[in-house]
Amino acid sequence: GMKRLRAEAVALARGEKVDNPILSSIEKVGGAEFGTDSYKMVFPFDNPDLQYQVSGHDTVTLADRLLRGGSQAQAKLSFWRAIHAAQQRGAAEQIIHKAVRYIRDGVEDIALNDMGFTPEVRMALRAQMDSVAKFDAQGNLVEFDITKMEGDEADAFIQAVQRGSGQIIQGTFIGETGKWAHSGWLRLLTQFRSFSITSVEKQWARQRNNRGVPAALAILMGSMSVAAPLYIARVYAASIGRHDREEYLERRLAWDQVARAT
Length: 262
Prior knowledge:
Blueprint: H1 2-13, H2 24-30, H3 48-55, H4 62-77, H5 80-105, H6 110-115, H7 119-127, H8 129-132, E1 133-135, E2 141-144, H9 153-168, H10 179-182, H11 184-189, H12 194-211, H13 213-239, H14 245-252, H15 255-261
Antiparallel strand pairs: 1-2
Helix pairs in contact: 1-5, 5-9, 7-9, 12-13
C-alpha cells in the first residue's frame, strides 16, 4: 500500500537497504531508486529538471536558494513529496507485474511497446523467465531478479520501466525531446505551466500517437465531462455575494470559458 511504498522511499533516501522482491534488483543494477528523486540525486536516470540545478552554469543567488528552499518546504508540508514517491514506486511495481505477465502469456500491448519493451526484450525475457521470475500458485509474480537475465536486453528492460513510470507519473526523463523541458529560458517562462504541459505530452499526445486521434479525443472528452461540473460548482460558489452575480455567471459559464477551463 501507500504506507509501505512511502516508507521504502524514505528508507532508501537515508541510505538504508530495502528488501523489495520486485524492484530491488532493478534498482541495484540500474543505479536509480524509484521514488527518491525528490529526496536526493539518483544519477544516471535523474531527470533534466534536477540536472540543471546541479550541473547548470548559472550562479545560484540568495534569491534562488530562498525559492528552492520554499519549494522544498512546500513539497514536504503539502505531502506532495511523500505521495509522489509512493506513486513512482507503485507505478514501477505495476509496470513490472504487467510486463512480466503479458510477456509470459505472449500478450501484445501498445502501452508496453511505447515504454520500450521491444520484441527483442520480450523474446529474451520469455526465454529466461524461469530464472528471472518466480510466481505463486495463482500465477502472480512474487519475485523478480533482473541480475539473472543475460544480454543487453536486461538494460533495455530497466530503461523501459524507468521510462514507463516517468510517463505514468508525468515526469521528465532522459530522451525527452520537448524544448520546454531542456531549455533554461523556456523552463523559466513555463514554470507555472510545466505540469499542464507535461500532462498534455504524457497523456493526450502519447495516446494520439499510440491509438490515433479518435481515442485521444475520447479521453479528452471524458476528462472534460468530469472537470466541467467541478468548474461550474466553483464558479457558482465564487458568485455568491457578488453585486454583478448574474453577469458574472453568464460570462464565466459561456461555452468557450467552460471549454478553456476544462
